[in-house]
Amino acid sequence: MSTDTLAPRTGAAAGTAGERPLVEVHGLAKTFDVSAPWLNRVVERKPRQFVHAVDDVGFAITRGRTLALVGESGCGKSTVARLLVGLYAPTRGRVVFDGQDTATLAGAPLRTLRRRMQMIFQDPYASLNPRWKVQDIVAEPLREHGLLTDEDTQRARVGELLQSVGLAAADALKFPHQFSGGQRQRISIARALATQPEFLVCDEPTSALDVSVQAQVLNIMKDLQRAQGLTYLFISHNLAVVRHVSDEVGVMYLGRLVELAPKADLFSRPRHPYTRMLLDAIPDVHMSGRSRTPVQGEVPNPLNPPAGCAFHPRCPHANVRCSTERPALQTVGGIRVACHAVEEGRI
Amino acid sequence: MAVTADKPLLEVRHLRVEFPTRRGTLLALDDVSFEIAPGEVLGVVGESGAGKSLTGASIIGLLEPPGRVAGGEIVFDGRRIDHLSHDQMRAIRGREIGAIFQDPLTSLNPLYTVGRQLVETIQTHRPVSAQEARARAIRLLQDTGIPAAEARIDHYPHQFSGGMRQRVVIALALAAEPRLIVADEPTTALDVSIQAQIIALLKRLCREHGAAVMLVTHDMGVIAETCDRVAVMYAGRIVEIGPVHDVIHAPAHPYTAGLMGSIPAMDQERERLQQIEGAMPRLNAIPPGCAFNPRCPKAEDRCRRERPDLAAAGATRAACWLAASPPGDGR
């Protein structure tokens, strides 16, 4: 759909099939220690407890493309976002950005890397400092990375950035509370773009917005991608939004990728039973009357995930193997899916 | 007691809700009129601040002070309820009109078991013994699809997941067999797979119990799946009301059309979403004429001067000068 949107600023021949991806993630895992305090463990004999928020997640994003991660609350999609930008350190696995393993970097090279990737957060009310003017908010990354030290050029750059997201240059003198939710999210985008990053991690950027405002923000994000050749990791729980923005889609369930496929394949021919269930669960605005299977059950407690395939208690196709052996992500007919039933050709 | 099919269960006429503030009075709802028939599901949709939740709160008499009903009337089953005293309203709320709110955790008392809360609700409104009430509570929990209801009834709200809690809240709302349920964003806090289950459950139970529903939500998809009719609100007024199918497929008001165009669709692909420029005006800065005119691509002089009222427009009723004009006159 959007292969014509590749406009690399590096001048390299981007988008061709054999090109090295901008972002590669290998076997990424993050475990959180949620044990009770030491004294309680000793006195009440409580065991240590760990949540495997992200487990063995791997994907690659080509320059100028968008990978979307979808899943329900607690599936680990936001943890992946935070691992990628370095807000969390991975327990296992590697994040490779433009050929460099991010874990091996420190000092100046790490700062350069930080400049090349930025993040947009979900809540535009919490992510902007209410005591700072927009000028200071948007210019902060410039100051932090020592890119533009002269105040006049800084001001001019902030004006440009604000205009690029559909705000006025004069808005730089206002405070965040003078803006609506959609405008605030545009300020967040302007701030993220300040260092001219190549890779943006967007964690539910439109979930807090009304639909008409969501449309404005999604359109701006697509326009910016086309104009600046940006690469996106787009985290969302809304499959309709994902369908609109992404090139590839990864579906997560309880910390693992269960399906990773080009958008067209995922939406026209979902393979994993969980993907099918998610697609069936979406309310149908256009009342097309498509046949759907009712959804059953809930996401299990991540502290105590089911053995085997984590989805098997809710899966209509589960058998003995599904409840004992965890399926690995395998390439089946051009897409990647972690399901015994698909692998065996049962569905 | 019995309501005939042609008489509406709830009538809201010219409802006006004001918020007196230090800097003048804000008009939060202005001339809102609609009705709900017995057993009907009416959706109320709109963006944040459009007044949809306030409409629901006015009906169940839970308007947060300093907000107050300043005009119009709310008639439930032939009886005016908007000027009842606190105690009189308490007798109606729960018994005649049930309520379901967005956040299932704050709707339940964390210190009492769900059974105690259900039994208390049933006994407040129905003259039954504690044992009967408990048996009824278990049946309600079973109806809402809670597994092992006999055991779960003695659990506390925190022992339930979000989706299960919302089932308990639905059981609570249905406990006294009300004839109208006001559901304010009942699935917004839930994941899609849980949302689908709760919507199906709400629909089924209300049909079985013969309860009418006023479903307040910002999600057009939920409306399309659930409702018979839908009212679209904008800046404190209803701009369009009609059968769901007609409002979605042939919206008469430019705001409804814009709203529909801005929703990313699952079944078709568009390079760009249609967007409505700007944002909804704040209550203290509602423009004269039609409140939507600064964002409306078709606005004319008249739209900036005179305020349109709801009038027949195709299969729906819309508050728009351009929609009311006969079809085929260009714009």
Give structural notes:
The complex is a heterodimer of chains A (347) and B (331). Chain A is of the alpha/beta class. In chain A, 32% of the residues lie in helices and 20% in strands. Chain A contains twelve helices and twelve strands. Residues 1-17 of chain A have low confidence and may be disordered. An eight-stranded mixed β-sheet of chain B has the order 6-7-8-3-9-10-12-11, with helices on both faces. Chain B has a four-stranded antiparallel β-sheet with strand order 2-1-4-5, covered by helices on one side. Chain B is globular. The termini of chain B are far apart. At the A-B interface, α6, α7, α8 and α10 of A face α8, α9, α10 and α11 of B.
Tags for this entry?
heterodimer; A: about 350 residues; alpha/beta; Rossmann fold; eight-stranded mixed sheet; four-stranded antiparallel sheet; 12 helices; 12 strands; about 30% helix; disordered N terminus; B: about 325 residues; 2 domains; 13 helices; about 25% strand
CATH fold topology of the largest domain in chain B: Rossmann fold
- Main sheet overview of chain A: 8 strands, mixed
Percent of residues in helices of chain B:
25-40%
- Average pLDDT rating of chain B: 88
Strand content of chain A: 15-25%
Low-confidence stretches of chain A: 1-17
Number of strands of chain A: 12
CATH class of chain A: Alpha Beta
CA radius of gyration of chain B: 21 Å
Helix content of chain A: 25-40%
Radius of gyration of chain A: 21 Å
List the helices and strands and how they pair.
The complex is a heterodimer of chains A (347) and B (331).
Chain A: E1 23-33, H1 38-44, E2 50-61, E3 66-70, H2 77-85, E4 92-97, E5 100-101, H3 108-116, E6 117-120, H4 134-144, H5 151-164, H6 181-193, E7 199-203, H7 211-228, E8 231-236, H8 239-245, E9 248-253, E10 256-262, H9 263-268, H10 273-281, H11 320-324, E11 330-332, E12 335-337, H12 340-343
Parallel strand pairs in A: 3-8, 3-9, 6-7, 7-8
Antiparallel strand pairs in A: 1-2, 1-4, 4-5, 9-10, 10-12, 11-12
Helix pairs in contact in A: 4-5, 4-6, 5-6, 6-7
Chain B: E1 10-21, E2 24-36, E3 41-45, H1 52-59, E4 68-76, E5 79-80, H2 86-92, E6 97-100, H3 104-107, H4 114-125, H5 130-143, H6 149-152, H7 162-174, E7 180-184, H8 192-209, E8 212-217, H9 220-226, E9 229-234, E10 237-243, H10 244-249, H11 254-261, H12 301-305, E11 311-313, E12 316-318, H13 321-324
Parallel strand pairs in B: 3-8, 3-9, 6-7, 7-8
Antiparallel strand pairs in B: 1-2, 1-4, 4-5, 9-10, 10-12, 11-12
